[in-house]
Amino acid sequence: MKAPFLSRLAAGLLSLSVAAAAFAGDAIAQTEKQGLNLTAIGMFFVFVLMTLGITYWAASRTKTTADFYTAGGGITGWQNGLAIAGDYMSAATLLGLTAMMYTQGVDAYIYMIAFFVGWPIILFLMAERLRNLGKFTFADITAYRLDQGKVRTMAAISSLTVVCFYLVAQMVGAGQLIKLLFGLDYVYALFVVGALMMVYVTFGGMVATTWVQIIKACMLLIGGTTVMLLAFSQFGFSFDELTTRAMEVHKLGDKLLAPGSLLADPVTAISLGLGLMFGTAGLPHILMRFFTVTDAKEARKSVLYASGIVAYFFNVIAIMGLCAILIVGTSPEFFEGGVIGGKVIGGGNMIAMHLAKAVGGNLLLGFLSAVAFATILAVVAGLALAGASAISHDIYSRVIMKGKASEKTELRVSKFATIGLGIVAVLLGIAFEKMNIAFMVALAFGVAASANFPVLILSMYWRGLTTRGALWGGYSGLISAVLFVVLSKSVWVDVLHNAAAIFPYTQPALFSMPIAFLLAIIVSKMDSSVRAKSEIEAFEDQYVRAQTGVGAETAAAH
């Protein structure tokens, strides 16, 4: 009997989470340094010089904290949409999802949908209120009518946790990619990424980071579209012919276009889907971008443009993955990593690069390689800026100095924080070189969905939220998400080498999100203090500002 569709859909999500872990481990374990790719290095230097020029220009425009954190609020909806899409279209999207389509077929498309469905939540529930209520960080919103010191500290800790795990994943990915494609040693690649990230953020702030993301997004769209069109043209641009021929040669056969080809565990799969969906709405470097536009209307436009760009790119890489089955071939070495013709190919994760070389030669391979590295640089810069703002604006300026720090001092702290985060990112990248990084990405999304999203959405929509409730909800979501992942097979068995996992599932969101919501609501309901009553009354002023963008000064000063 066939499994119900939802079970098969859930199984598809699970299979891809397993595949992602396997791909990350295999690629890292079997990638070795190879000869210099001069075309890729040349194009990489062109990109670096271009972005350093932008940073020099941006430095002259970055004089205040508003300039540093939000580009002075002068970014248009179209520009910000491109930048948000650039943040979201990481190297994992280009390399990892193409590889998943190549090996798992339509399961990869289900995975893309799980990533994508977070955007309507941001568009319809959050974009306008984020822009109207916030100033620099999402902690401005969660602490709007609550205890500034306690709630900002909690929000900053969860933000830094997400940022650090994302940074580790990006840094390890950068080191392995450059070791494979550029011939540089892993440690040298980490120092290059860390140094460039520090320069972009320290001198150019959000202005430079935004324009680096815009340029990178355009390069990624051009590169990916070119590879897709050249590959797809070999099948007369007929999707029917492409899929029919692919099913004839692929090891999955007819199951290439059927969901759920590996394991059937709906609980883990649904938990993964929830983490990806609501984690998107809780990522600090994505949320920070809504404060860079002029008003709420432009914020909504940003999400609309970003959604369209991301949806288009997902379809591009889906077609690339299917084309690779026929153009690159289905040799086991490509699935598992290995050596072909004396060259290490890095397993399925590098299939996009092999397809680029097959249809466009070394020139297109070099361009796409440079774009992949540029993608990591841009994402790391955005993450560093989000982390620096949490340290300088939330912890230093608002908690330690209680709002009395000068803009000049706060800006200086931001730059020192950026340098510190760069050093930490490099050191963590070195420490975790041999570790499977798939669980770090899952943990980042899990923490964002469990710690950031519940408190953020409740603070915007529920008048009953109090400081105690926010703290219990935020910290319980953060701790439970981390604890569940540590006790799962991803860490407890694969990393710590214990015999069996204590927590039976690899994704925490299905369990840690309800804990955060329930404790935030229950503790808030039980809080009968005088302060709690005033916080509840202040919601009316907050609601007015959330709707109109004006007023609510009494709540802001609360």
TrEMBL record:
InterPro entries: Na/Glc_symporter_sf (IPR038377), Na/solute_symporter (IPR001734), Na/solute_symporter_CS (IPR018212), Sodium:Solute_Symporter (IPR050277). It holds the Pfam family SSF. It is a multi-pass membrane protein. It comes from the Bacteria. The keyword Transport applies. The keyword Cell membrane applies. Residues 1-24 form the signal peptide. It is found in: Cell membrane. The chain crosses the membrane at residues 40-59, 80-102, 108-127, 154-174, 186-207, 214-237, 269-291, 303-328, 363-392, 413-431, 437-458, 470-493, 505-523. Keywords: Cell membrane, Ion transport, Membrane, Signal, Sodium, Sodium transport, Symport, Transmembrane, Transmembrane helix, Transport. PANTHER family: CATION_ACETATE SYMPORTER ACTP, SODIUM/PROLINE SYMPORTER-RELATED. Belongs to the sodium:solute symporter (SSF) (TC 2.A.21) family. This is Sodium/solute symporter. It comes from Aromatoleum diolicum. The lineage of its organism: Bacteria, Pseudomonadati, Pseudomonadota, Betaproteobacteria, Rhodocyclales.
